[in-house]
Amino acid sequence: MSRTMMDETFLNPLLVARAVDAALDEDLGRAGDITSAATLPAGAMARAVMRARRLGIVAGLPVAIAAFRRLGPELWIEERAHDGARVEAGDALIVVEGSAHAILGAERVALNFASHLSGIATATAAFAAKIAHTRAKIVCTRKTTPGLRVLEKHAVRSGGGANHRFGLDDAVLIKDNHIAVSGGIGPALRAAKSAVGHLVKIEIEVDGLDQLDEVLREGADAVLLDNFEPETLAEAVRRVGGRMPTEASGGITLDRAAAIAETGVDLLSSGWITHSAPSLDIGLDIEMG
To answer: pLDDT tens digits for 40-60?
Structure first.
């Protein structure tokens, strides 16, 4: 397995604990793991290895470890890979030894997080590879699983992508519906500039070159070019001329990513990498004896 630049991307342990507790509460319910309680001796011990079953980029291993720790604080855990690592089928990711009840009680939650987040990291890495010959970056959106946004955005970073805003409260993004209600691009931009502080960025969405020209007259911190074809994107980038970052959005698929990035845009934003990326197949096997 190999490591990438994104291995040490920050993941807030307080938010990890909150997500893990919610998932364990959902899985253990009112009576706990009644299968393990019925079949395992009270003091049963075990050694388990979490392995990748397919090639990919891993993410969410600290979350999986937190799940095991929550049910078994005394478990011995060895992390064999790190978030952002490229792994092959069969590579060990985590080794856990100790209470079999704790290991099996946390198994599915740990695997769900690791598989889902590794799938996002793997999908992001595929996009990043497609556009590596350009200046563009792949970024995520707010199209995330409710309650898992921070974790999914961490997975995007682990895969070599970058994050868009985390929520409605950390940046202004004026979209078509805001423009419609506020009375146009000019009124929307002027209202936003008068309302927010100097550290808050303002981005605005446009769906044509005529709207882009309005934005260039009014001024903004960034412009989102929504559902532009590559030829129109290239013209939009030319008109912007480096005055603000340009973001391409809408229909950003893996097979179109290179053509879109080659127009010179700075960012490609994709909701697919968080809401539709397939999970990476990861399993947990008990090794006895």
So the answer is: 999 999 999 999 999 999 999
> Catalytic residue among 18, 135, 175, 243, which?
175
Q: How confident is the model at residue 5 (pLDDT cuts 50, 70, 90)?
A: very low
| 138 plus 237 within the same structural domain | yes
169-189 burial string, b = 16+ CB within 10 Å, else e?
eebbbbeeebbeebeebeebb
How far apart are alpha carbons 203 and 221 in whole angstroms?
6
Active site residue 226: yes
Catalytic residue selected from 91, 226, 247, 266: 226
Domain of 30, in residue numbers? 13-119+277-286
Active site residue 8: no
Same domain? 51 vs 106: yes
Q: Is residue 4 part of a domain?
A: no
Indicate if 160 and 47 belong to the same structural domain. Answer: no
- Concerning whether 18 is annotated as a catalytic residue, the answer is no
Q: CA 108, 111, 117, 123 torsion: positive or negative?
A: negative
- Judge whether 84 lies within some domain: yes
- What is the percent of the chain with per-residue pLDDT over 90, rounded to a whole number? 95
158 domain-assigned: yes
Active site residue 78: no
- The model's confidence at residue 4, banded by pLDDT at 50, 70 and 90, is very low
Annotation says 153 is catalytic: no
State whether 70 and 185 are in the same domain. Answer: no
Q: Is the pTM of this model over 0.90?
A: yes
194 and 109, same domain (yes or no)? no
Three-state secondary structure along 231-268?
HHHHHHHHHHCCCCCEEEECCCCCCCHHHHHCCCCCEE
pLDDT of 7 over the 80 cut = no
| Active-site residue (options: 108, 165, 201, 256) | 108
**Sorting pLDDT into bands at 50, 70 and 90, what band is 9?**
low
